[in-house]
Task: inverse folding
């Protein structure tokens, strides 16, 4: 595992409408992919390493999802209680479940699968880990989830934003974790890794 960043200090000043609108615009293709898969009712939609939960908020606030929101169960997970506080503030108008835990805790196994998870997703999580941790996370959630969708920044960024991101090519991500599909957007700067 790579070094830890103080995510709270990074995001506490970004809790505003301007930043939220930026997220909705910049990552719209990623949010569109998630929204297209959020069709099952009475299933869990789980965001790993949720941070401030801007992606979950944007997903819930899509009109097509909002109309049937009470039939979907959203769970956001983070290992930092202060980040979960930001998430609670950001999602205060929505009924969402919160869990304080490391994304590698209580991973599903073939012997003890978790049922009812439609989608496991993350935004800016995987690139902070090594190959083996990424493979473990993906493999274990394949057992439990119908779909997985993970956003990662691509190699075109050149320089990490926080100092420890691995800015990899599409080929590198294919080699590490073999997604069903990789969608590139924002002129190839950003990737959505998808498992169906």
Result:
């Amino acid at each position: 595992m790579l070094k830890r960043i103080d995510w709270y200090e990074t995001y506490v000043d970004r809790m505003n409408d301007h930043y939220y609108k930026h997220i909705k615009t910049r990552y719209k293709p990623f949010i569109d992919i998630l929204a297209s898969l959020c069709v099952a009712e009475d299933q869990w939609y789980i965001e790993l390493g949720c941070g401030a939960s801007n992606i979950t908020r944007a997903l819930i606030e899509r009109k097509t999802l909002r109309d049937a929101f009470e039939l979907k169960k959203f769970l956001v997970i983070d290992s930092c209680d202060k980040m979960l506080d930001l998430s609670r503030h950001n999602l205060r108008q929505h009924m969402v479940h919160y869990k304080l835990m490391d994304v590698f805790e209580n991973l599903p196994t073939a012997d003890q699968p978790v049922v009812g998870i439609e989608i496991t997703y993350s935004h800016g999580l995987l690139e902070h880990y090594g190959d083996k941790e990424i493979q473990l996370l993906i493999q274990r959630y394949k057992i439990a989830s119908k779909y997985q969708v993970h956003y990662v920044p691509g190699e075109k960024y050149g320089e990490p934003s926080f100092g420890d991101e691995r800015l990899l090519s599409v080929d590198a991500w294919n080699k590490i974790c073999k997604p069903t599909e990789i969608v590139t957007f924002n002129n190839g700067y950003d990737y959505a890794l998808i498992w169906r």
The longest helix spans residues 131-144. Strands lie at 44-48, 73-78, 97-100, 117-123, 145-153, 181-185, 190-195. The radius of gyration is 16 Å. The chain has eight helices and seven strands.
